[in-house]
Design goal:
Helix content: 25-40%
Radius of gyration: 20 Å
CATH class of the largest domain: Alpha Beta
Order of helices and strands: EEHEHEHEHHH
CATH architecture of the largest domain: 3-Layer(aba) Sandwich
Number of domains: 2
Distance between the termini: 38 Å
Amino acid sequence: MTLLTAACADSTGGGDGGRAAYPGNLKPLTISVPFGAGGTTDTIARLVAPELEKSVGVPDGSMIGFANLPSAVTTYVGNGDVSYDKRSFMPLGVLTSVSTVNAVHEDSPHENLGDLVEAARAKPGRIASATAAEQGFDLNLLSRIGTAAPAGIDDKARDVLVRALRDVAEKTTFRSAVEALGYGGGFLGPDQFGVEWTDAEDIARTVVEEEKE
């Protein structure tokens, strides 16, 4: 799905002091959502687009897209059919996050995550498992709903978008809407998002290499 914002911002820096001024000429900004319509990311994108429009109007005609972790890295790590990776993007920030819950059927013989992991090891490929730190397993099961721009985006344009996305993520109306979907956690800036993106890549590559052995 693709969303287009409409011109609202003042490129000269004047006007409403609550709006971020966008440098240069204003052209449509495309927001790309690489997920199916009606899903969580699509829903969040539809919450973001009108608020982003109010904050920055229409930036320089470039595209920003939703880049969720860890799903973003699994589309290219170990996949020789694509020509992009993290270097193709400029992280802008995480808008919200969600934790993963592990559960089994009430008739399952597995009473804890340790049992489930042992069963998965005994039958490789037949049981999908994940775990939690409180039971002695060091895995991060936090999913990030993030945004990124193409690598090489102008620094000023990037900074305006980051500020605008932060403003959206911190709005009470947005936070209430995503919390109703089970998400939360607040905004993470591009530096932290970039670090987590790299960490997710490292984990994915380790898993891919172990599967080859």
